[in-house]
Amino acid sequence: MINNEKNQVLLEIKNLHKEFDGTTVLGDISLNIHKGEVIVVLGPSGCGKSTLLRCLNGLESIQGGDILFGGKSLTSKNVQWQDIRQHIGMVFQNYDLFPHMTVMENVLLGPVKVQKREKSEALLQAEQLLDRVGLLDRKDSYPRQLSGGQKQRIAIVRALCMNPEIMLFDEVTAALDPEMVREVLDVILSLAKQGMTMVIVTHEMGFAQAVADHIVFIDGGKICEVTKPDVFFAHPETERAKQFLNIFQF
Amino acid sequence: MHLNWEFIISSLPLYEKAGWLTLKLALLGIVASLLIGLVCSLILYYKTKGLKQLVLIYIELSRNTPLLIQLFFLYFGFTKIGIVMSEYTCAIIGLSFLGGSYMTEVFRGGIESVSKAQIESGLSIGLSKFQLIRYVILPQAFTVTIPALGANCIFLLKETSIVGVIAIPDLMHLTQSLIGMYYQTFEALLMLVVAYLILILPLSLFLTWLERRVRYAQFGN
Amino acid sequence: MLNSVINVMGEGINLQRLLGGLLVTARIALISIIVGSLLGIILGLVMSSKYKVLRFFCRLYLEFFRIIPILVWLFIFYFGVTALLGIDVDGELTAVIVFSLWGGAEMSDIVRGALVSLPKHQIESGRALGLSFWGLYRYILIPQAVRRLLPGAINLSTRMVKTTSLVIMIGVTDVVKVGQQIIERAVVTAPTTSFFMYGLIFILYFIICYPLSKLSKKLEAKWES
């Protein structure tokens, strides 16, 4: 029996319920993420998109529902997030490279110290990845010597070097000057072409349409629509989605 | 006003001896405080159940009571219920008890000075709590912690002036005795001030230089 | 054993005298805090002014009080002035003078820090709205400055309260001294009194200082801008 890898469910989100100080931020979120799939989460500010991503990574606790990664529940008491996070990589809005380390030290910290891999092997992978994003010549620079776009690309490399199965991107271009947004988005696009499973939160509509396999539209902490990108942008089903898209048109 | 220089010169060895004693006590107190501070701040960081509450209570108790009372309590109080300690032991315990909580606050502040974003960044590549301290927090908190630790050291040095109240032959005790016996008040007071200046001024200047250097390294001004 | 201690400490006159000692402590602390604060505000303004010479002398004054331990200052004023004037100086007065001077020095730094940290654009916005010099101070600068210095000021007051325990060394009959006298009198009948008496004084200081430090933390958190 041939295992159809493309349809294998990597991450199952079941009825996820998240509260902050008694206020429901995410209610009854259910979603399946398949291997190789790219999900783009769209929605107005404060709708809970970033929170959802942070729940998948264990940076936020959930009060109801479950998340299953490779069949295993991430809400049970003895979940070792340290292990899980090596399989679920995350890139943040503010890059947050470690300022006291060079680019190469930043990238190698996870593979060598956490995954206990051979330094030479990790170095090879790091150099390959840095080369692919065009920053191999900066491997000995410090973060403060780099531009925002460069730092963000390095942050992506750092996460990729852990060989994750899923990559989470939380509004990674929101803090960048406009000229640098493209270089970062190009990296993510090429990752998608190579079949990386990704969940992306973004406001870049053109990019969303180009990279996504499915658009998940969230408003008020609930999923309103899950549609294919071309359909979503041309004929959104729900009223709220229509209102949301109108914001981006003058 | 003329000073009795003979008296000053003849008392110099006494002041030197007392000064060394003060320094020794301060050093022991500082080392003990640093150890206590390290242990307590780690307990707070790892949020160890039960111990965390104890540490918090300890901090409040030692920060809101004067060293003098702590010393009296230890030296005069505990003796009478059967726990006899030498005055030196009491002094060290008192200084460590007080200093430990101050050091804990410094280390705690250092850990908290590293932004949440940095911590999350480290967590997202799978670092354990210990690895976080080693690779992310410690290097970045260092620059904030060192000046504060230095300030605490100076604070403890000054606090040693109080241990004279439990019959330790330190600078204060010596000065009091000399004034009482020989009435050379100005001379004794002058030497007392000079002694403390010698002990504290170099450290204070070093600290100021250190702070400036740290600030330059961080902000470049 | 415990019985005799309770007898001693519960004796009416002992309680009365303890309270009297507490009053002395409170008096010294309160007067010093008030005078020190006023002095500190004035000096703080001086420290923020543009007169380099004045700033220099203020700085010198501050550093002197910071480097020399307070007990040493108490000795200097108490024994020094006594020898200078040949009269018996009142310990309480000496204490108030020394603490006020010390408090003033520390307070001046707190005030200066508060004034320096005021964001300049607030002043510009105020001017743009047409506020006069006094209006600027009253509605914008002073409320903001107060918020920035209050936690530090309360913190300083707590430290001053703790330091009043030192006045026993210059002959003031404060709560500690009274406690010692009671202990001495009871040394035969209830020798363990010292443990409980110092324990009591320990708790008394804690009861006074803990609420203050909690208040300071609360204000600091509340006004974190």
Q: Any overview of this molecule?
A:
- The complex is a heterotrimer of chains A (250), B (221) and C (225).
- With 250 residues, chain A is of the alpha/beta class.
- Helices cover 35% and strands 25% of the residues of chain A.
- Chain A is built from 9 helices and 10 strands.
- In chain A, strands 6-7-8-3-9-10 form a 6-stranded mixed beta sheet, sandwiched between helices. A 4-stranded antiparallel beta sheet of chain A has the order 2-1-4-5, covered by helices on one side.
- By secondary structure, chain B is mainly alpha-helical.
- Chain B is 83% helix and 0% strand.
- Chain B has helices at residues 5-46, 51-63, 67-80, 87-113, 116-124, 129-159, 171-182, 185-219.
- Chain B is flat, with a radius of gyration of 21 Å.
- The mean pLDDT of chain B is 89.
- By secondary structure, chain C is mainly α.
- Chain C is 82% helix and 0% strand.
- Chain C is elongated and about 75 Å long.
- The termini of chain C are far apart.
- The interface between A and B is medium-sized, with 25 and 16 residues.
Give me some keywords for this one.
heterotrimer, B: 221 residues, mainly alpha, 83% helix, C: 225 residues
Sheet of most strands of chain B: none
Biggest contact: B-C, 39 and 39 residues
Derived structural class of chain C? mainly alpha
Strand content of chain B: under 5%
Largest sheet of chain C: none
Helix content of chain C: over 70%
Estimated share of beta-strand residues of chain C: under 5%
Summarize the structure.
Chain A has 250 residues and is an alpha/beta fold. Chain A has helices spanning 49-56, 81-84, 103-114, 119-132, 148-160, 178-193, 205-211, 229-234, 239-246; strands at residues 9-20, 23-34, 38-42, 64-69, 72-73, 88-91, 166-170, 197-201, 214-219, 222-227.
Topology:
The complex is a heterotrimer of chains A (250), B (221) and C (225).
Chain A: E1 9-20, E2 23-34, E3 38-42, H1 49-56, E4 64-69, E5 72-73, H2 81-84, E6 88-91, H3 103-114, H4 119-132, H5 148-160, E7 166-170, H6 178-193, E8 197-201, H7 205-211, E9 214-219, E10 222-227, H8 229-234, H9 239-246
Parallel strand pairs in A: 3-8, 3-9, 6-7, 7-8
Antiparallel strand pairs in A: 1-2, 1-4, 4-5, 9-10
Helix pairs in contact in A: 3-4, 3-5, 5-6
Chain B: H1 5-46, H2 51-63, H3 67-80, H4 87-113, H5 116-124, H6 129-159, H7 171-182, H8 185-219
Chain C: H1 2-10, H2 12-47, H3 52-67, H4 70-85, H5 91-116, H6 120-128, H7 133-163, H8 175-185, H9 193-222
Helix pairs in contact in C: 2-5, 2-7, 2-8, 3-5, 4-5, 5-7, 7-9, 8-9
